[in-house]
Amino acid sequence: MANGTTMTAQKTRNKITQQDVARLAGVSVAAVSLVLGGKGRISPQGVKRIYQAIDQLGYRRATTSPPVTLSRIGLLLPLDCAFSAGLLPELANVLQQAGFSVALAYSTLDPADVLAQTEALLAQDARGIIVCGKLLSSRPETLQALNARTAARHVALTGISAHHHPGPVAAVHPDNALAAHMAADALLEQQHQHIAYLGGENHSLIRAERLGGLSVALGKAGVAFSPSLSFPCAETFDDASVAATQVLKHNPKVSAILCDNPTVLQAVHHALANRLQAHKWRLFSRRIALTGFGECEPSVKLQLPLIAVSHNAIATRALECLRHQLEGSLLLPGDSRLTVAPAFL
Predict the structure, then answer these.
(1) What PANTHER family does the annotation carry (predicted)?
(2) Which candidate, 44, 93, 131, 140, has a CA 20 to 30 Å from the CA of 29?
């Protein structure tokens, strides 16, 4: 009798549909489905209304197997970091495709804030945490504390940086030196020996790594690297255009330019195509080979040569490193698995 009553009650509840829930919550059926599946981006207010409607109606999702709880990976992101912002969509997608749910936390560079946001992710039962971008430049003692807190809970910890990072958090990073070496090799094969480097700030580690790769490539070809052909400039279209004009005006032997980022690449291309090529001076009538670093769809459409480590490649490698740790493997700074090779796009 008791069993019959339970079955009847369950049957009645199952007659309530997602359409009923959506109607009462004032949202679409798709929104209800996404919330129930733990996917998509629904506003907190919408999620609250959906769960209120589910509770009120007594809705229960039909299932033939026990519910599956996804392992959660926490992403600790810095505020105002272009590298992390550009990486986030692909990183979240790669993790979700691998069956993980994703929790986000944003932090300033203040040590107390970094640790507080880490604790917030750990409180959500994250099995792994990925620390991104500028946060890896936090004080060593802060990163050591982060290491200790995750290790105590058997939580995997991996970083993602735009350049090589010595630690103490093992961080996945692109091989910037190899990228410049590959770009220089391609230009040397085209008989370019006077290669300038344009863009990046003087203190940029990414720029320093690429200049190192350029120097090595030139040295192997018997060409001396000249620091005078390295020109820092802000990552703006106007600044790069002005800098390109100065480079060519004062360095008549330069026949190729490596551009630090896609903004500089597009600015130099525009300057050559629309101003320098039309200049009366013979100085600006020569052909200049360009190569840029980084992912950029507009540059690809312009058929400008780019060399980069894609966001997908970085995210995929970070996932692999997390899995190594989740399986009990140790991952230390300097491990070869942390370095991701570039490719021409």
Answers:
(1) HTH-TYPE TRANSCRIPTIONAL REPRESSOR PURR-RELATED (PTHR30146:SF148), LACI-RELATED TRANSCRIPTIONAL REPRESSOR (PTHR30146)
(2) 93
